[in-house]
């Protein structure tokens, strides 16, 4: 990996293309270095993972709406939509919209956390949609997905968006564009323009994950994927983009990110050091990402597992006086009491808000000793009087050590959990801690292929037929050998008559 300094330059500097981050990203995408076998195996795992959570969410309102919108854009020889027969295709950007929404709705697929937050599996729907529409092979798809993961995760390692209240899909637009470019074998110039277009159009703000969180949280990454496809299409037709999009005098960095807080010295020191693979270096970033065993914000994964462990030592939960979760800055301020969001303590809050409330999540996990992607968030479950009492006894506090570990570069120190102190009414206390979730690569039970298959079978049970489940699992595990034009086989369909229809709209 090589670090690339990125800062704002005045227009008169005429920054050369080869010195621009978008050009370097495009260079990584055009490097046809072989995808390692373990990376290919992990890509297969994540395609299974995405299908699992997408089918589990297939008849939830945002997914139904996104699918209905996509079906308003039929295209012969286009891309397939989750739940529908693979023979019914739509324009690829709309397939990415529908499938991306389905994948994100339950907030249960893979994650990577560093300077920024991300769900790099969000790259798969747009890359797959274009691969199906353009009749590419399984090997091509693997190359495109590996590239999408690499670019998004490298940007996430270096550039914080949330610090400036920008939503994390601003890294997803460029990465999906780069992944599509790699898939199609496009020239560096074309990918360069597409990456810039995609970034320019995907700058949105974190209000989507603040306060009363709405269904837009599920649509947001699908929106980025859709825009990335459109950006690539325009670039392939010879159209350009705002440039230099990262380093220009009126660029994203200059006015939205780091440069905005330092306008007096805007052309001064380097703001970011972005790591990218050197030419001939394999794209291995996906190996540093991790999936979710539980349907909740990633920072809650280890704390859910910890709640399961601690409940075994508590005879009566009603005897708890207070629960203090000592954790990282991010957990405290985004999903903890540091967010100062009253909705996070409201039994009538939306599912999207509850899965971003560690106070609610820890209380329910402590009571139930299990977690379910639907039942754990039901209005009846959230409104239980004993749950509300326990929930309101939970608070979070930032601990500098957990914040340090959250940002650690040593994978053996990296941690997303915390230390929990449960104080009882009799003055005694119970203290325990857990750094990473059981399913994390460094956890007690790291996820392997059979875990991904079990997750798929569990989440799709009763929704698709056993025959369809077995067919998909057989095909996806043979992904690198799928011939050109066979990628529609990766679509998962429901029995006829079981898909809900969306409300009427414009499309």
TrEMBL record:
Pfam families, sorted: MmgE_PrpD_C, MmgE_PrpD_N
Signal peptide residue numbers: none
GO molecular function: lyase activity
SUPFAM superfamilies: 2-methylcitrate dehydratase PrpD
Gene3D superfamilies (alphabetical): 2-methylcitrate dehydratase PrpD
Domain of life the protein comes from: Bacteria
MmgE/PrpD C-terminal domain mapped to chain residues: 294-479
Domain MmgE/PrpD N-terminal: 20-260
Sequence intervals crossing the membrane: none
Family indicated by similarity: Belongs to the PrpD family.
Matching PANTHER family: 2-METHYLCITRATE DEHYDRATASE, 2-METHYLCITRATE DEHYDRATASE-RELATED
UniProt-recorded name of the protein: 2-methylcitrate dehydratase
Organism: Humitalea rosea
């Amino acid at each position: 990996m090589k670090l690339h300094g990125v800062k704002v330059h005045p227009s008169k500097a005429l920054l050369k293309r080869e010195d621009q981050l978008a050009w370097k990203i495009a260079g990584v995408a055009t490097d046809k270095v072989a995808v390692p076998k373990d990376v290919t195996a992990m890509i297969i795992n994540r395609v299974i993972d995405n299908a699992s959570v997408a089918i589990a969410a297939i008849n939830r309102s945002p997914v139904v709406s996104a699918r209905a919108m996509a079906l308003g854009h039929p295209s012969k020889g286009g891309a397939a939509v989750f739940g529908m027969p693979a023979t019914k295709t739509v324009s690829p950007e709309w397939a990415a919209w529908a499938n991306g929404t389905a994948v994100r709705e339950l907030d249960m697929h893979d994650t990577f956390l560093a300077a920024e937050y991300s769900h790099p599996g969000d790259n798969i729907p747009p890359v797959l949609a274009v691969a199906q529409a353009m009749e590419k092979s399984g090997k091509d798809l693997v190359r495109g997905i590996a590239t999408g993961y690499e670019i998004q995760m490298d940007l996430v390692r270096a550039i914080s968006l949330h610090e400036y209240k920008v939503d994390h899909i601003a890294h997803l637009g460029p990465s999906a564009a780069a992944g599509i470019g790699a898939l199609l074998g496009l020239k560096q110039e074309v990918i360069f323009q597409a990456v810039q277009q995609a970034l320019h159009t995907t700058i949105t703000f974190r209000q989507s994950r603040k306060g009363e969180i709405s269904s837009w949280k599920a649509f947001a990454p699908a929106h980025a994927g859709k825009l990335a496809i459109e950006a690539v299409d325009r670039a392939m037709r010879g159209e350009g983009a705002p440039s230099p999009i990262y380093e220009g005098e009126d660029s994203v960095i200059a006015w939205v990110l780091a440069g905005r807080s330092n306008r007096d010295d805007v052309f001064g020191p380097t703001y970011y050091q972005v790591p990218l693979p050197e030419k001939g270096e394999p794209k291995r970033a996906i190996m540093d990402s991790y999936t979710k065993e539980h349907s909740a914000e990633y920072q809650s994964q280890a704390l859910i597992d910890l709640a399961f462990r601690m409940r075994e030592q508590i005879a009566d939960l009603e005897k708890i006086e207070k629960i203090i979760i000592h954790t990282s800055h991010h957990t405290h301020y985004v999903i903890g009491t540091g967010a100062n969001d009253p909705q996070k303590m409201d039994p009538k809050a939306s599912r999207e808000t509850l899965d971003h409330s560690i106070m609610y999540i820890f209380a329910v996990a402590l009571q139930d000793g299990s977690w379910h992607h639907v039942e754990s968030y039901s209005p009846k479950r959230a409104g239980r009087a004993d749950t509300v009492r326990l929930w309101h006894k939970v608070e979070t506090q930032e601990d500098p050590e957990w914040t340090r570990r959250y940002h650690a570069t040593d994978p053996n120190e990296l941690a997303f959990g915390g230390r929990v102190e449960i104080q009882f009414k009799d003055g005694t206390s119970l203290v325990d801690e857990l750094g990473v979730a059981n399913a994390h690569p460094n956890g007690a039970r790291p996820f392997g292929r059979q875990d991904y298959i079990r997750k798929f079978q569990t989440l799709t049970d009763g929704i698709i037929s056993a025959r369809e489940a077995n067919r998909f699992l057989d095909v996806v595990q043979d992904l690198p050998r799928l011939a050109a034009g066979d990628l529609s086989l990766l679509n998962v369909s429901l029995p006829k008559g079981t898909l809900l229809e969306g409300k009427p709209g414009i499309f």
